Automatic annotation (TrEMBL):
InterPro entries: Cholesterol_7-desaturase (IPR050584), Rieske_2Fe-2S (IPR017941), Rieske_2Fe-2S_sf (IPR036922), VanA_C_cat (IPR044043)
Keywords, alphabetical: 2Fe-2S, Dioxygenase, Iron, Iron-sulfur, Metal-binding, Oxidoreductase
GO terms assigned for molecular function: 2 iron, 2 sulfur cluster binding; dioxygenase activity; metal ion binding
Chain ranges of the Rieske domain: 13-116
Natural source organism: Bradyrhizobium lablabi
Protein name: Phenylpropionate dioxygenase, large terminal subunit
PROSITE patterns recorded: RIESKE
Length: 341
């Protein structure tokens, strides 16, 4: 599925960068192939415009902020958060400013990140109750660009069959390739998947899982939020909950920005932030190495894909069907299913 060719994907929220990155001025980003510029307005709220000045097409991200507006670094033209041109410094005071705008996009802050929707959103940003629940801490783990497709990462996030093999260097047990339980329930936002699986628990994972036993169990409650977000709640027998939230933000058809945020019901003394970052970094590196070896054109139409389906392929099949239905219901120009790529 070539994300940049699907107009409906512009109608979802995507995490694009930590809001702290905007403290020093405008920053560029490419979302679904669209060059945008992000900056903070006069109230400290994020704003998103096309990264293009109306005058001579210079990138606004080359400029700076002034009183909550963004100033083009080429000739000083100034735009407000809605993209309206409000100042041309070369004009006499009495000369009216032309009616000109840079296109603006929806932007807001959630979980410490700026989220952007290029067109009117179809749904809200996924809710993470633990972000406002006493006893949980939020840890920003990863913010990296991967050379793969957003759908590839989502499929992988619900594929328990790869644990024993891709993650054999961390928690996977190659002798235990099957989970004890795997159930999927479709929802209006995507689906819920529940899994119980036995994993290896090496010494460097003891403070992660809360036990020194050589193996332990994970009770995983995994949620898919269409199109490219997921929430994985891993509960251990120790009572520790290790909750990962990912957004696979499409930069282009072959590249994504991976945002990963962790929520834990313990303290820094129980397990340090650095330990948690390092442990999940090793796991995510194993996923990244494998996913970047796949074809980034993740085909939606299963009729174009030749494979023998395992039970663990069901989440991916549901994703593809739901996304295909979404594309056909909302895209401006419907295409035959066999032509969607």
């Amino acid at each position: 599925m070539l994300n940049t060719k699907q107009p409906v994907l512009r109608r979802f929220w995507y995490a694009v960068m930590p809001v702290d990155h905007l403290k020093d001025g405008p920053r560029p980003f490419t979302l679904l192939g669209e060059p945008i510029v992000l900056f903070l307005d006069g109230k400290g709220e994020p704003a998103a415009l096309e990264d293009r000045c109306c005058h001579r097409t210079a990138k606004l991200s080359k400029g700076w902020c002034k009183d909550g507006n963004i100033v083009c670094g080429y000739h000083g033209w100034e735009y407000d958060r809605d993209g309206k041109l409000v100042m041309i410094p070369q004009f006499p005071f009495e000369q009216p400013i032309p009616e000109a705008k840079a296109r603006s996009f929806h932007a807001q802050t959630r979980y410490g990140y700026v989220w952007v929707a290029l067109d009117e959103p179809l749904s809200d940003i996924p809710d993470i109750p633990e972000d406002r629940t006493a006893g949980y801490r939020r840890i920003h783990q990863f913010y990296d660009k991967w050379n793969t497709a957003a759908l590839r990462l989502m499929e992988n996030s619900f594929d328990n069959a790869h644990f024993a093999f891709v993650h054999k260097g961390t928690f996977g047990d190659i002798n235990q390739p099957k989970p004890e339980k795997y159930e999927i329930v479709e929802t209006d936002y995507g689906f819920d998947a529940e899994t119980i699986i036995t994993i290896r628990n090496p010494p460097n994972a003891a403070r992660i899982t809360g036990t020194t036993d050589p193996t332990t169990k994970r009770h995983q409650r995994n949620k898919w939020f269409m199109p490219f977000c997921r929430r994985l709640d891993m509960e251990y027998p120790s009572g520790i909950r290790h909750i990962i939230f990912n957004c696979a933000t499409p930069v282009s058809d072959g590249q994504i920005q991976v945002v990963q945020i962790l929520f834990r019901n313990d303290t820094e003394a129980d397990c340090s932030t650095q330990e948690l970052i390092d442990w999940d970094a090793a796991i995510i590196a194993e996923d990244r190495d494998m996913l970047e070896s796949t074809d980034p054109d993740a085909i939606v139409d299963m009729g174009r894909k030749i494979e023998k389906h395992m039970p663990s392929d069901r989440p991916g099949m549901i994703m593809r069907k739901r996304l295909l239905d979404l594309l056909h219901s909302h895209n401006e120009e419907e295409q035959p299913r066999q032509q969607i790529a």
